Request: fold
Amino acid sequence: MLTYLDFEKPIAELESRIRDMNNLESGEEINISEEVTRLETKRDKLLRDTYGRLTPWQKIKVARHPQRPHFKDYVKNLITDFMPLAGDRAFSDDVAIMGGLGRFKGQSVMIIGHEKGDDTQSRIKHNFGMARPEGYRKTIRLLKMAEQFDIPVITLVDTTGAYPGVGAEERGQAEAIARSTEACLGLKVPLVSIIVGEGGSGGAVALAAGNRVMMLEHAVYSVISPEGCASILWRTSDKAEDAANALKITAQDLLKLHVIDEIIPEPVGGAHRDHGLTMDTIRKVLETSLSELSVLSGDKLKQLRREKFLSMGKVGL
Reply:
């Protein structure tokens, strides 16, 4: 059953009435089908209007929706012959980041991404998508493997940020993130990165320094979570909504700032409402991007990626 967000209460009420009407037996006194059609039209308009004017804070809530597609859903729907690869060959395996070899429309690819989990047990298992150093070192290993065999890479980003625990810091969290970012930037095969939910801090950039960086329409991407920003600036997370408005975290803002290259449209009401349509849209975008990048040499891919990131933030003098 669909979970509704707080600002979706009017939509939830309409959909409840539609379900009740559909459960009624048709009688002479009321034409149920006409009433249902009227309510559905009203619901669709309300959905379009609501999602057409979401605030940054509301977009964060949509990006964090528990029923939004996760890494395993994208792999299941987009990749065939998937072979998961585990471990960083140094300490352990971190399932907050998953990856492996597979085929996308018949082409061999390496796909890597954050997995948050979709219920209490799996969220704990995947540490809510917050990776430890082992996850980033596994990413580096898979990137090097992809380059060795001349295989393009797809990364799917969905994390609030890297895990800030003591053990992670003791094992070199910052260094691992930096090395993973460096590996992305130096890669001599195509790298397409999509922020599918949350893109939080260096934990996201470590997988998202690609030739093409795209975001789903209601995804967010920021240097710090709004809660973290509010805690630093105002000493309270109660100001998280104010921080969200100031951080320029939406896909629309980031496209204007040239931080990302493209916004991928979501179904009306968000990706969580229609997984199938979301997969179809991403499939087309990936096919186009990989086709355009595959004709470039390894050195050219590396050069363009470097120029792309070095140009961010430049202003005219």
